[in-house]
Design a protein that fits this description.
Helices cover about 40% and strands about 15% of the residues. By secondary structure, the protein is of the alpha/beta class. It has one domain (about 10-255): TIM Barrel, CATH 3.20.20.70. Bound molecules: 1,3-dihydroxyacetonephosphate.
């Protein structure tokens, strides 16, 4: 396995945007534009209430639907939470776990990220596992240590076999929604640190087979250069995924 044989994944993270009717229109438009662009896997991660509409609109297309979080327990008294089996029964194939906005605003920790990842994998979901350093950590020169630590904690107890269903999304927090993008060199280098950490945990073969995305102000103008880097196997796209034409341009760059 190497960049040429690893599965590239372009995923949109709609965050808290789009009502169900807006989701139907946006998924249909996106699917129309990306039809036949099968050089990468294409995923849209939508709000929970949009899942039914999005799955219906994506039927028969090459667009897969993902969720933006999942709880680690199977069922019970967890008001406001959603279980992995609820997602799979609704036709969800992917789930984002550990997004920096969940860590920052909703108290997610590496421990809960790890538990959610295990529950999602056990239910047959593919996990887009987000990690990345904050600005102060990059300025302090400890980015490599931070992403290595997050990689180890978030993947604790997850088997090499399960790694086939884990995608890492490297999202430097300072680049999310700010218009600041990591340079292609920074993205490549830090995705490389994550890959080296996976190699330490699982061996070189698993590390070379793992898809590692970059996320943080990726758009139609900068995607091609970021995606050309050896360790960058795709993108997790926020703002630009809300505009089907922009998202399609990123998919085209990945193809
Ligand atoms: P932006 O592309 O809007 O910076 O968001 C990135 C992100 O957080 C994707 O999960």
């Amino acid at each position: 396995m190497n960049k040429a044989t690893r599965k590239a994944i372009i995923a949109g993270n709609w965050k808290m945007n789009m009502t169900p009717s807006e989701a139907t229109a946006a998924v249909k438009k996106t699917a129309e534009l990306v039809a036949g662009k099968d050089g990468c896997e294409i995923v849209l991660c939508v709000p929970f209430v949009d899942i039914a509409a999005a799955v219906e609109a994506a039927k028969g297309t090459n667009v897969k639907i993902g969720a933006q979080n999942v709880h680690f327990e199977a069922k019970g008294a967890f008001t406001g939470e959603i279980s992995a089996s609820m997602l799979t029964e609704c036709g969800v194939e992917y789930v984002i776990i550990g997004h920096s906005e969940r860590r920052q605003y909703f108290g997610e920790t590496d421990e809960t990220v790890n538990k959610r990842t295990k529950a999602a994998l056990a239910a047959g979901l593919k996990v887009l596992l987000c990690l990345g350093e904050v600005k102060e950590e990059r300025l302090a020169g400890i980015t490599d240590e931070i992403v290595a630590m997050q990689t180890k904690l978030d993947l604790a107890g997850i088997s090499a076999e399960d790694m086939k269903n884990v995608i890492i999304a490297y999202e430097p927090v300072w680049a999310i929604g700010t218009g600041l993008t990591a340079t292609p060199e920074q993205a490549d280098e830090t995705c490389g640190v994550i890959r080296a950490t996976i190699a330490k945990l699982y061996g070189a073969e698993v590390a070379e087979a793992t898809t590692i995305q970059y996320g943080g102000s990726m758009n139609d103008a900068n995607a091609a250069e970021l995606l050309s880097k050896y360790n960058v196997d795709g993108g997790l796209i926020g703002g630009a995924s809300l505009v089907p034409e922009k998202f399609d341009a990123i998919v085209t760059a990945a193809n």
